[in-house]
Amino acid sequence: MSWLRRLSITARITIGSLIVAALFGLVAVVIIRIGVSSILHNATVTLLSNDVAAPAQSLLTKPTGPFDLPGGGQELAIVDAQGSILSSTMPDGLEDRIHTLIRLGADPHSVQVGDDHYLVLTRSVATPNGVMHVVAARNDETTALILDRLTAALLAGAGILIFAFGGASWLLARTALRPVSRMREQADRIAGSTPDEPGLLPVGPAQDELSELATTLNDLIVRLRASADRERQMVSDASHELRTPLAVLRGQLELAELDAGDPDALLTDIRSSHATAIRLAQLANNLLELSRIEAGPSSGRIDWRTLVDELTDAIDRARLLVSSDDEAAGISVDFEYDPRRRPDPGARVALSPTDFGRILDNLLGNAITAIRASGEERPEATVTASLVLTLDESGGEAAVLTVTDTGPGMPEEFIPVALDRFTRADGARTGQSGGGLGLAIVGALADAAGGRVVLANGRPSGMIVTVTLPIRRD
């Protein structure tokens, strides 16, 4: 059957249709032949019954004759009680077996004499001279001839219908698969096109399997294009953003080579190079992390209790950061949440604990960096993170994380693009170590969880970042 797999779909459909049609045709011919044979047999039995009716009736009144037996293919014989044939129009072969025919009983029986087949019917009649018998026979040659010619005609007609059905199946298969050919041609054009040339597979107006296939393949093409765009964007961003720090690192290393005879200057150059290398590593890690997040939806699930635990852990990390940095000393980092209101135990947010912790670390780190760079009086500098349960726009529950600070805020014209990668405000809100990826990672993680991020300046100053994460019960 390996040859069958090498055939086209149209050929396989046509061959399968021919086989099915041939089977149905043969079954139909057999059924029709059996039906016609039964009808002809019943007709012959009826004729035999009529043949014996008149002689049997005459025996009741005239058991000794004379007997006027009809001809014209009606083979009859009258046998008396002693077994003698009183009158007969039967052929010699049947007359010789007349006593055997009588013993067959009153039911019709098929008897072969030489090359001829006869259907025989015997009727016993009680007369004053004893029980006499009327035996009738009819040749089945006509019936067999009719069946043979009918079968030949049916087979010829079935053959014509089968080939016509095969041709129709071939045409229908070609017509049905024509959209597939168009999709293949369009796919060839898409494969040979440039990434900037749009193009999708044609979707027919009918809501059938081919339309569903085209829709699914179009979704795949869109996702592949988006993935390719992300890869190109990442490569472009990486080449653009890494160029400057690499040039700086190269210059610092060249300075270190020039200052080889000055230990203090050499140490300063090495420390500067080390800081630049750390920034390069952080930038590369952030790029890879952002690419991972944008590659697909999050597979993590985190319950409410774990959200609260991650919040307190992130606050501890932020406080440790403040205490270890002399320039950030005096910044107050605190959190708020209502322990009385919580979702049911089956509620989950579509993030992993690590990803939620990354959102907190980026937002708290950005707030601390902004306050530190603003030179604000430390006793009044605060960063507060709150986690509450509320209803979203669709009426479902959502976990809302809000991070507020008393820093300088953002320029209003920068807020719409603040979540884009490698964007930085004119001030030092995002710092220089992150490369402008911190808020982009926060936005990508929120999108992966089905949520959103909203940025707004506080009144009279500061920044308010609100992250809404829908709660699911799947």
Secondary-structure map with pairings?
Layout: H1 2-5, H2 9-61, E1 75-79, E2 85-88, H3 92-95, H4 98-103, E3 109-113, E4 116-127, E5 130-139, H5 141-176, H6 178-192, H7 209-258, H8 263-294, H9 304-324, E6 332-337, E7 348-349, H10 353-374, E8 382-391, E9 397-405, H11 438-448, E10 452-457, E11 463-472
Helix pairs in contact: 2-5, 7-8, 8-11, 9-10, 10-11
What keyword list fits this structure?
single chain, 474 residues, alpha+beta, six-stranded mixed β-sheet, rod-shaped
Description of the structure:
With 474 residues, this protein is of the alpha+beta class. The chain is built from 11 helices and 11 strands. Strands 6, 7, 8, 9, 10 and 11 form a 6-stranded mixed sheet that branches. The chain has a 5-stranded antiparallel sheet with strand order 2-1-5-4-3. A hairpin with a 2-residue loop joins strand 3 (109-113) and strand 4. Helix 8 packs parallel to helix 11. The longest helix is centred in the first third of the chain and has 53 residues, at 9-61. It is rod-shaped, with a radius of gyration of 50 Å. It starts with a helix and ends with a strand.
